[in-house]
């Protein structure tokens, strides 16, 4: 609370919830935008993690660190695939096509 001229004023708050979206389509689009933003953060974090782990692993001669770096690279490719899928979510026709062509079992095409 801030006090100004003897009055108590509330500090401004930032509302991060999605309340402006009224229709289910708007809510889905807002959720997809938030998901894309989180995927960008995940890609950035895992890319940095990959580079640091690989460099440290090769310099230290640690197979565990090198393996961790390659695992982070796999996570980046997975995040890119999820990001691609979230981009298709905005268009209903493309979303339905993506659902039909998505593999039903992991590791299959």
Explained architecture:
It is a single chain. The protein is mainly alpha-helical and 109 residues long. It has a domain at 43-100. It is built from 3 helices and 2 strands; from the N terminus they run ββααα. The protein has a two-stranded antiparallel ribbon with strand order 1-2. A hairpin with a 2-residue loop joins strand 1 (2-4) and strand 2. It is flat and about 55 Å long.
Strand coverage percent: 5-15%
- Rg computed from alpha carbons, rounded to a whole number of angstroms: 21 Å
Kindly report the average pLDDT value.
81
Instruction: Report the strand count.
Output: 2
Class by helix and strand content? mainly alpha
Question: What is the share of helical residues?
Answer: 55-70%
What is the element layout, followed by pairings?
Blueprint: E1 2-4, E2 7-9, H1 24-60, H2 63-88, H3 92-101
Helix pairs in contact: 1-2
Question: Can you tag this structure with a few keywords?
Answer:
two-stranded antiparallel ribbon; flat
Give a concise summary.
The protein is mainly α.
């Amino acid at each position: 609370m801030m006090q100004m001229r003897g009055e108590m004023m509330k500090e401004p708050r930032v509302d991060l919830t999605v309340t402006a979206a009224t229709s289910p389509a708007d809510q889905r689009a807002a959720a997809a935008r938030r998901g894309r933003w989180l995927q960008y953060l995940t890609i950035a974090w895992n890319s940095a993690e990959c580079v640091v782990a690989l460099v440290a692993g090769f310099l230290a001669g640690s197979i565990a660190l090198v393996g961790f770096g390659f695992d982070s690279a796999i996570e980046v490719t997975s995040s890119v695939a999820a990001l691609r899928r979230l981009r298709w979510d905005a268009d209903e026709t493309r979303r339905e096509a993506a659902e039909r062509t998505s593999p039903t079992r992991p590791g299959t095409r």
